[in-house]
Design goal:
Helix content is 29%, strand content 37%. A hairpin with a 2-residue loop joins strand 2 and strand 3.
């Protein structure tokens, strides 16, 4: 597996991953009726933000986006989001994407990385982020409507560099 910068030609292979994750309604706060052009604008942000893909040959296994969490006085903290294809889960793709985002943020001099909305019952993501040095710094109770668990909390997770 290799992580590389997103290329416009990747979109036809990235969009199905995003559509599947968003429509499942289990991990992202995006509108489940999201259309491809809306998703592109959300996921592929202009520089200095960065979008990457994890690939194996010509197969896109996952994707990540990263950038500044908030502008102005908050621009010293980064953020990132990750999506992994259903068929590639459990193979270390999310870990590799997370490590890539952390390395990118550190190299650009950010003071830390913050995740704003990690679904509390997404235990694989929460455990991955904890292994990579993040801590839950707060939880908004009932802020996410999960299709099987009902209203669950959204964690804010942070790692200081």
């Amino acid at each position: 597996m290799r992580i590389r910068e997103f290329d416009e030609r990747d979109w036809p292979r990235v969009w199905p991953i995003i559509a599947d994750v968003v429509r499942a309604r289990e991990t992202f706060t995006y509108d489940p009726e999201l259309r491809a052009e809306q998703a592109y604008a959300l996921w592929v942000e202009p520089s200095p933000a960065r979008t990457v893909v994890a690939v194996e040959g010509d197969t896109v296994l996952g994707t990540a986006k990263m950038g500044t969490n908030r502008p102005g006085p908050g621009d010293h903290v980064s953020t990132a989001s990750f999506m992994v294809a259903r068929t590639a889960r459990g193979r270390g793709v999310g870990t590799a994407l997370c490590r890539d985002a952390l390395a990118w943020a550190r190299a650009r001099g950010y003071a830390g990385m913050q995740f704003n909305a990690v679904v509390e019952c997404n235990t694989s993501a929460v455990e991955l982020y904890r292994r990579e040095g993040f801590a839950v710094v707060g939880t908004v109770p009932g802020a996410f409507r999960h299709p099987t668990h009902g209203r669950v909390g959204l964690h804010v997770m942070y790692q200081e560099f």
